[in-house]
Amino acid sequence: MKRILSIIFSILFIGVLAVGCSSGEQSSNTQKQSTENKEQKTLTVDKNKKEVKISAQVNGKYFTENTRHGVVFKDGKNGEKSVLRGFVKPEDFYNALISIGAKPGNNLEAGDKGKGKKVEGSKLNVYITWNGLGKEIPFSDIIYSSDPRPMDIRFGGNLAHAKKMNTGCILCLDSCPVGITSNSAYAFGESDTVKFHGKKDVLPKDGTDVTVIFRLAE
């Protein structure tokens, strides 16, 4: 009888282990699939519309503090210095813009600061939206400038500089030799005198997920 009971308990124990392992593996696979799905949603490309969309998040710190950074990849050195934290690597964003036919300017160097030079490259119309807004609004609507000018976002390119500096810069608010895109309305270095920050009365609260849309204008 003892031997029979021992065999029964052993069978039951093995069964419990098998169910537990199967459940853990299923949970792990589900979590992995969920993570992959989230990553896939961070960057979408529509070649017919000549459009690139990236996911980002509001950084409420820059409702009041000034910054020259509009969107920066969260893991870059400037990831916490921008109005929006981006979830897309600069290189992936660069390649996405290339895939819709955008042409990089690659015309700025670090030594050009203060010389009045502006970023070149394909012009991009940039918009932003978030859950509940129900529409797209121009990116310029979320940015305060102490010297307001019509926003003129250009595909600066700068991939080699971006890789070397690892700042994570995706969209800079004045002309920049490192950012993948930047604002040609202001020359490189003008952010030393012109102040920028996010508009608290337009943007949703700190930590809100948003989508930034880049459309080729030319």
Provide structural commentary.
- 26% of the residues lie in helices and 25% in strands.
- It folds into 2 domains: 1-39; 42-216, no CATH class.
- The strands form 2 sheets. An 8-stranded mixed beta barrel has the order 2-4-3-9-10-8-5-12. A two-stranded antiparallel sheet has the order 7-11.
- It is built from 3 helices and 12 strands, in the order H-E-E-E-E-H-E-E-E-E-H-E-E-E-E.
- By secondary structure, it is α+β, with helices and mostly antiparallel strands.
- Strand 5 and strand 6 form a beta hairpin.
- The chain has helices spanning 2-41, 90-99, 159-165; strands at residues 43-46, 51-58, 69-73, 82-86, 123-129, 137-138, 143-145, 153-154, 169-172, 181-183, 196-198, 209-216.
- Keywords: Signal.
Summarize the structure.
The protein is of the alpha+beta class. The chain has 2 domains: 39 residues; 175 residues, no CATH class. Helix content is 26%, strand content 25%.
